Amino acid sequence: MKLSKRLKHIESMVTSDYTYIWDCCCDHGLLGTALLSRLAAPYIHFVDIVPDLMNELENKLQRFYPNSPSKWQIHCLDVAALPIEQYEGKNLVIIAGVGGDLTTQFVNAIHQSHSTTNIDFLLCPVHHQFTLRQQLIQLDFSLKNEVLVEENQRFYEILLVSSPGNTDDKQTKISPVGELIWQANTTEQSRITMNYLSKTLEHYQRKQWSNNADIQHIIDAYRSVNI
Predict the structure, then answer these.
(1) Cα–Cα dist 103/85, whole Å
(2) CATH number corresponding to 5-172
């Protein structure tokens, strides 16, 4: 099945540096299957908590990838409980398609359980990006890449980050509102960044007016963005 624009961008950000890739909240497994098809890593793990989905996916993988050079494994469990300690090597944990609050909870739980393990995270929350970024900063994660994507009139931030246990030489701090996502090389990307900034500011201003929320610092942070 063809990948959506968002999933294509996520898939394109996966390099060949990893021994294990964990496609979390994988739903029907489209992203992980694409990674399996291009042999992106020696081992691809599919993770979701819905038994019916995972049974269906396992049947599909047994049918189409019975002898794949990249090994695959199905895990029907909570993402917070990934058994990463059982697998020695460099891990990439992909969490996409769920809210920023839940993504933050998952990242926190995985990091607490595996604080000394070499893990990269590829994250694409559907909202609450500011909340997620603040937590990543608090955990002292570093940025490897970030991309802004528009699909079906919705905007998605995709962040590739490293946990403090990662000993790569280059360490780039994570911005609360992003930096690379605002750098446009084309007219189309410039339009996307301007629309996203406008809609994000409108969202927080409405929230401030309607709930009297103490979020002026968030509004100021986005107002400081230069495009």
Answers:
(1) 20
(2) 3.40.50.150
